[in-house]
Amino acid sequence: MKLKFALATTLLALGLTTAHAAPIVIKYSHVVADITPKGQAALKFKELAEKKLAGKVEVQVFPNSQLFGDGKEMEALLLGDVQIIAPSLAKFAKYTDQIQIFDLPFLFTDIAAVDRFQASKEGQALLNSMSKKGITGLGYLHNGMKQLSANKPLAMPADAKGLKFRIQPSDVLEAQFKAVGGNPQKLAFAEVYQALQTGVVDGTENPWSNIYSKKFHEVQSHIMESNHGVLDYMVITNTKWWDGLPADVRKGLSEAMTESIKFGNQVAATEDANFRAKVIADNKAKVLPMNKDQLSAWRTAMKPVWSKFEGNIGKDLIDAAIKSNQ
Fold this sequence. Notes:
This protein is an alpha/beta fold. The protein contains 13 helices and 11 strands. The strands form 3 sheets. It has a 5-stranded mixed beta sheet, with helices on both faces. The protein has a 4-stranded mixed beta sheet with strand order 8-5-9-11. α2 (37-52) runs antiparallel to α10. It starts with a helix and ends with a helix. The model has no long low-confidence stretch (mean pLDDT 93).
């Protein structure tokens, strides 16, 4: 009887422990505002994950570099200090040369072409290209095509000569601006507004959502509709942490992430036009379209960057990206 009572007590205690197990805390850190497509996708992931895995996970979202800036977030992920981040694709060059493909100027004609490439077998393979270095890709998030901005019109490539442009830490982006005589400066995203305001840099490149949400149009006099590149993100996690999750939790998180990315990309498609309209309505920076001759001149000036990095990226991958334009 005593043995049965002790066993029952032990089982009851184990049941209570299991029932009241603390949820897995998942820190999702990013560097932009909640109103951006990435910000909204992160909040949607929190909503979906906590609904699918009620009581099993708690998702904490940290926007606007509250937890880590874009210069520290990758290290934080690899150390296990955060579980999910969504860096721009320009941030992965030190882990794989292939993802540099997304930085090549004038490679994609529009965001639909980017979407087709990312959904292709070549694009999907890139998500797992860094797993041996501790990084697992969970999907791509759109932010939009990039626009050039400066405190003067950038009608032709010669107009960029001698100007200091803020860039992300990317050899391709560095080569891109050097190709037109610019002076690229690597700065953390959180420092860009002040750098533009104080003249530390003269210009930059960003999609409309970043331009408006970070008020870059208030410290730049001209924005050129160049659509010369894409600023997308890869949502990533720590491979060891991800692989170590219970199977049901990993499945639920994967489903939530897929749904949140789809939601975020729908927001990005809608908001790209809306943010552009808001920048124009504020009337603080002149938004200037580029005609065919101007775009051709810029494309011609920057296209040699393709051949410079073809050996690192791979001709087959570049060809697959070009095919997505058709």
